[in-house]
C-alpha cells in the first residue's frame, strides 16, 4: 500500500489550492507577465509562454443557497472546465481559457440575473457582515441595507468610469467583521445605549470573571451586593462584547440603534499608503426595509467624490488634498463632538501637530 492510503483525512480548512487549479494554470504558475482590463468584469492575464487566461467576474450576494452554488458550478462546467473561485468581496469569478467562450459566458450570466462587472475604476461589490440574519450583537441589518445601497449605485458596478476604485463596506456592529476600518466609504451599525443588566440572570447564568475580561475598555466591574456587575458609562463604547459572553446584558435597542458612516480608508499602497476610515456621519436611524435615509446619504457622498476628485484619486486621497474642513463643507455635514477622537486608547490617532490645511 502507498503512503497516501494511511494519510489522515480531515475536514478542517480548505483543500490545497493546487487541487482546484486547471492544468493550464499549473503549467503557467509563477510565470504571469502582465494583465489587461478587457472591459468591466473581464480581465486577461498573459503568461511568459504566451498563454492567455480570461477572468469573468460576476457580483453575487454574500449569502447564497446550495441551488445557486449548483447553478454556478453548471455554468463553470459549460464554459471553463468547471474552474471558478469566490473573491473576498463576494464575487464569483469564472476562469476561461478559450477566448471564444467569454462572450457566451457573459450572456448566460446576465440572462440569469448575475451582473458582470466590478473591475477597473468602478464600484466593487459591497462586502458586509451577517446582520440580523445571524449575528447576536448586530446593531443593524447587513443584507438589507447593502442590497438597498447596491441597487441605488448599481450603474457604477457595471461601468469603470469613476475617478478610481470605489470600495464600500458594511459591518453590523463595532466589532467590525467587515472591512469598515479601511474602505473608501463604509457604514457600521452602532449601539448608543448601555447594556441593560438583568442582575438575577447574571448571577445564575454568567461567569463574572469572563464577563469582566470581555470588556476591551475595562468598563465592567464586580457588583458583590447583587452578585453581578456594574458598567461605567464613561468607559463603555457600546461594542456588545459583554453580551456575547453573557446574554443577561442585553444591548439591542430598536429606538437608539442605527448606522454611522465612515470615509477615506484604503488598503492599497498605490500613490499613498494605507489609511483608516474616519467618521463622517455619526448616526442615521434604522429604517427598514430600504434604509432610504442611509442610501441617500451614501449616494450624496459618492456623487461628491465623482464631481470633485481627480482621475486616479481614491476617496481618502481626494479628502487629504482638499482638507477635511473643506470636505465637511462640501458634504454639508456638521462637525460635532462625536467626530473628536477622545477615546482613552486613541493617542496614536490624535492630530498631534499644529499643521492645518486651509483651502479657499
Strand line-up in the sheet with most strands = 1-2-3-5-4
Q: Could you give the count of β-strands?
A: 14
Structural class: alpha+beta
Would you tell me the overall average pLDDT? 90
Distance between the termini: 79 Å
Largest sheet: 5 strands, antiparallel
Task: Describe, in plain words, how this protein is organized in 3D.
The protein has 360 residues and is an alpha+beta fold. Helix content is 26%, strand content 19%. It has eleven helices and 14 strands. Strands 1-2-3-5-4 form a five-stranded antiparallel β-sheet, with helices on one face. Strands 6-7-8-13-14 form a five-stranded mixed β-sheet, covered by helices on one side. A two-stranded antiparallel ribbon has the order 9-12. Helix 4 packs across helix 9. It is globular. The model has no long low-confidence stretch (mean pLDDT 90).
Q: Notable features of this structure?
A:
globular; 5-stranded mixed sheet; single chain; 11 helices; 14 strands; 5-stranded antiparallel sheet
Amino acid at each position: 500500500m502507498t503512503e497516501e492510503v494511511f494519510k489522515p483525512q480531515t475536514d478542517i480548512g480548505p483543500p490545497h489550492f493546487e487541487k482546484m487549479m486547471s492544468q493550464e494554470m499549473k503549467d503557467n504558475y509563477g510565470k504571469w507577465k502582465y494583465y489587461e482590463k478587457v472591459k468591466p468584469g473581464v480581465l486577461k492575464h498573459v503568461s511568459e509562454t504566451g498563454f492567455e487566461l480570461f477572468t469573468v467576474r460576476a457580483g453575487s450576494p454574500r449569502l447564497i443557497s446550495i441551488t445557486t452554488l449548483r447553478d454556478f458550478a453548471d455554468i463553470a462546467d459549460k464554459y471553463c472546465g468547471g474552474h471558478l473561485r469566490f473573491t473576498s468581496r463576494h464575487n464569483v469569478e469564472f476562469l476561461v481559457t478559450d477566448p471564444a467562450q467569454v462572450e457566451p459566458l457573459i450572456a448566460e450570466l446576465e440572462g440569469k440575473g448575475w451582473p458582470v462587472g466590478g473591475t477597473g475604476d468602478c464600484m466593487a461589490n459591497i462586502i458586509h457582515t451577517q446582520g440580523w440574519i445571524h449575528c447576536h450583537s448586530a446593531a443593524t441589518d447587513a443584507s438589507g441595507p447593502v442590497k438597498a445601497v447596491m441597487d441605488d449605485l448599481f450603474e457604477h458596478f457595471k461601468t469603470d468610469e469613476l475617478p478610481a476604485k470605489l470600495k464600500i463596506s458594511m459591518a453590523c456592529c463595532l466589532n467590525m467583521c467587515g472591512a469598515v476600518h479601511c474602505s473608501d466609504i463604509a457604514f457600521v451599525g452602532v449601539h448608543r445605549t448601555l447594556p441593560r443588566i438583568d442582575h438575577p440572570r447574571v448571577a445564575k447564568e454568567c461567569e463574572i470573571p469572563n464577563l469582566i475580561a470581555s470588556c476591551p475598555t475595562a468598563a465592567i466591574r464586580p457588583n458583590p451586593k447583587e452578585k453581578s456587575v456594574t458598567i461605567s458609562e464613561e468607559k463603555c463604547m457600546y461594542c456588545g462584547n459583554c453580551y456575547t459572553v453573557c446574554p443577561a446584558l442585553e444591548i439591542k435597542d430598536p429606538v437608539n440603534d442605527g448606522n454611522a458612516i465612515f470615509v477615506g480608508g484604503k488598503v492599497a499602497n498605490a500613490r499613498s499608503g494605507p489609511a483608516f476610515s474616519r467618521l463622517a456621519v455619526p448616526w442615521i436611524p434604522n429604517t427598514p426595509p430600504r434604509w432610504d435615509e442611509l442610501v441617500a446619504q451614501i449616494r450624496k457622498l459618492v456623487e461628491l467624490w465623482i464631481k470633485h476628485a481627480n482621475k486616479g484619486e481614491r476617496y481618502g486621497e481626494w479628502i487629504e488634498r482638499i482638507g477635511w474642513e473643506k470636505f465637511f463643507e462640501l458634504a454639508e455635514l456638521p462637525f460635532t463632538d462625536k467626530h473628536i477622537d477622545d477615546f482613552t486608547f486613541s493617542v496614536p490617532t490624535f492630530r498631534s501637530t499644529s499643521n492645518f490645511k486651509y483651502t479657499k
